[in-house]
Specification:
- The protein is α+β, with helices and mostly antiparallel strands.
- The protein is built from four helices and 13 strands.
- The strands form three sheets. Strands 5, 6, 7, 8, 9, 10, 11 and 12 form an eight-stranded mixed β-sheet that branches. The chain has a three-stranded antiparallel β-sheet with strand order 1-4-13, with no helix packed on it. A two-stranded antiparallel ribbon has the order 2-3.
- The longest helix has 15 residues.
- 31% of the residues are buried.
- InterPro entries: C-type_lectin-like, C-type_lectin-like/link_sf, CTDL_fold.
- This is C-type lectin domain-containing protein.
- Keywords: Signal.
- It comes from Caenorhabditis angaria.
Length: 222
């Protein structure tokens, strides 16, 4: 899918006359296009701080974190991070549509930082606050920590000190109410109650083919 956006800006330009104190002003338009980005088929494009990004959700009820990552890598992608709520809600809505409103988890590309393993991570200053700094995004294409702002109540809890992977909890209720309580830490080998996974990859910048029409300025006859 090709995404192309063209904008028209209007500027007020004033010219001073050498033989008087008066100025003449007129509105001049400048037409320009932002870069075009290409997503693979069935992916959806999102604008991120670091550039355009493509996400697709896959339905699979028997996949653990490692298998989900392998599936994404096999199609030249990786497990998707989340930069903002729009992306989180998109993954939620897609998983609910594909599963026909079944509740479950969706693997995304987040892992617990190694310094935050075990039962003592709450005492480690490097992991504080835990909702922001105990995990990191694995795709390396996200800016800021806003994506870590949608934890479910009591999460992350690192139950049994083995929940080192990140998932979105997808339910019909959270979809219909635009809930922001979506993230939870999961045991990476878990397959029970999983709905699938979200793959992501940077969008491809489409090079200008040089076929755009030129805008020539009209010159007055001398």
């Amino acid at each position: 899918m090709l995404y192309n956006f063209t904008y028209l800006l209007a500027f007020l330009v004033c010219y001073s006359h050498a033989d008087s104190m008066l100025s003449t002003c007129q509105v001049e338009d400048i037409l320009f296009a932002v870069p075009q980005y290409q997503c693979p088929t069935n992916y959806t494009l999102f604008n991120r701080y670091n550039g355009a990004y493509c996400i697709q959700v896959f339905y699979n009820t028997t996949v653990n974190y490692t298998s989900a990552l392998s599936q994404c890598i096999s199609i030249n992608a990786t497990l998707s991070s989340i930069e903002n709520y729009n992306e989180a809600y998109f993954i939620l809505s897609q998983s609910q549509t594909l599963s026909r409103n079944v509740s479950g988890g969706v693997w995304i590309g987040g892992l617990r930082r190694s310094v935050c393993y075990g039962s003592d991570y709450l005492k480690n200053q490097a992991c504080q606050p835990v909702k922001t700094f105990s995990f990191y995004w694995t795709d390396g294409f996200v800016e800021g920590t806003t994506g870590f702002g949608y934890w479910m109540d009591g999460q992350p809890d690192n139950s049994a000190s083995v929940e080192n992977c990140l998932a979105l909890q997808s339910t019909a209720a959270s979809w219909s109410t635009n809930s922001t309580s979506l993230l939870l830490d999961y045991e990476c080998s878990r397959t029970r109650a999983m709905l699938g996974y979200a793959c992501g990859q940077p969008a491809t910048l489409v090079e200008d083919n040089g076929d755009d029409d030129d805008y020539d300025e009209e010159e007055d006859d001398v």
